[in-house]
Input
Amino acid sequence: MRQRRVTWQRGGLGLMAVTMLAMSCGANPPSPMAAPSVAAPAFDGTTLAGEPISLASLRGSVVLLDFWATWCEPCREEIPHLIALHEQYRSSRFTVLGASVDYGRGVVERFVEQLKISYPVFLDDGEIARAYRVRSIPTTVLIDGQGRVRRRYTGYQPRVVLERDIQSVLSETVATP
Output
């Protein structure tokens, strides 16, 4: 009888551990709104279209900075949402900015063309990802018009989550003189 109880307890603990691990996979909840004083790390780059891009040049606009790769399945699933959000809010001083962590410009250019990505995309050699403490992809950072990190997302996020937070930051930006 004692042997059966120990086996059942071990089995129950194992099942609980597997269940908890399975529940932690997939979309991670976004971090709470970051304190307004957290400055986003500055960066400079060149888009695939050859245009210079920097966080400073986007001052006054809300920016959704997305770190992704062509081989990342959750990134592939999230990109159509990012395209739609970029198109929907671009006239509201908002932009999506894609930072590809892929190696090789050609594969990224083909991917951007294939998915018809309409927002600016640049290649990151890892320097910007390190500055933003990216540990996995996709990682997306919502930056307000003053250059402050307002939200950080790790993993795939549904459009409704991103849109709610974008609207919130945009409304604060409009209300601020």
Remarks:
- The longest strand covers residues 62-68.
- The helical segments are 2-24, 73-89, 105-115, 127-131, 159-175.
